[in-house]
Amino acid sequence: MNDGVTLLKAAQKLDEEALTAIFDSYAPAIYKYALRLCHDPIEADNIVGDVFSQLLEQFANGKGPRTNLRSYLYQTAYHLVVDRSRDNKHTAPLEVAINVQERERTVPTATQIEERVLMEALVSAMNSELTDDQRHVIILRFLEDFSLKETAQIIGKEVNNVKVIQNRGIAKLRKALEHQIGSEQDDL
To answer: With 142 labelled, which of 8, 70, 133, 164 sits at a CA distance of 20 to 30 A?
Structure first.
C-alpha cells in the first residue's frame, strides 16, 4: 500500500494496515511540528494522539480528508495547538523544539560556537518578537516545507495574508538578529 491515494481510500474504510501505515508515516513529523509550536514534549505527544484520534473519528463517521491527508493532519494539529495555547500559556524553551545542537563533550570549534550563538539569537527572537501567526507561518514554511497555498489552508487564511505574515515575521527576525549581533559586537 505505498500509493497515497490507495492508502487513503483504505484508511477511510478503517483498514487497520492502512491506518497503521498512515500513523507510522506522519506521526513523527506531526510530533516535531507540534513540539515546535507548543515547546512541550508531553503536550506535543498528546497532540499527536489527538490528531490521529480525530482522524479515526472522522473516518468512522464517513468524513475526513479525501485528497490531501498531510495538510489535513497539520491543520488539525495547528488547531489543537492554538486551542490549547488559549487555555494554557505555558511555554518551554523553543530550542527544545528546534533541536538545537546538543552540547557535546568535545570542545566546540569557533564556527560551532558562532552557529550556536546565532541559533540562540534566532530562537530568542522567535519567542519574543514574533506573533503566534508569524511563528506558525515561519515554522510551516521553512521548517516543515509547506507551500504558501498549503500554509494558508492549514492556518485558515488567504495566500496573500500568509505572504504578509511571512514577510513581516522575517523582517522582525532580521531586525532582532541585527540588533543582537550589533550589541554583541559592541561588547567585544
So the answer is: 8
Domain ranges of the chain: 4-87, 96-187
| Residue of 29 and 109 predicted with greater confidence | 29
Selecting from 1.10.1740.10, 1.25.40.10, 1.10.287.1080, 3.40.718.10, what CATH number does the domain 4-87 have? 1.10.1740.10
Residue type, 66: R
Q: Are 162 and 184 spatial neighbours (Cβ–Cβ below 8 Å)?
A: no
SS3 track for 39-92: CCHHHHHHHHHHHHHHHHHHHHCCCCCCCCHHHHHHHHHHHHHHHHHHHCCCCC
The Cα angle at residue 81 between residues 77 and 84, in degrees rounded to 5:
135
Report CA Rg, the chain: 19
Percent of the chain with pLDDT over 70: 73
Residue pLDDT, tens place only, 48-64: 999 999 999 999 999 98
What is d(CA 143, CA 1) in angstroms, rounded to the nearest whole number? 28
The CA-CA-CA angle for residues 71, 74, 53, to 5°, reads 110
List the Cα angle 83/89/90 in 5-degree steps: 115
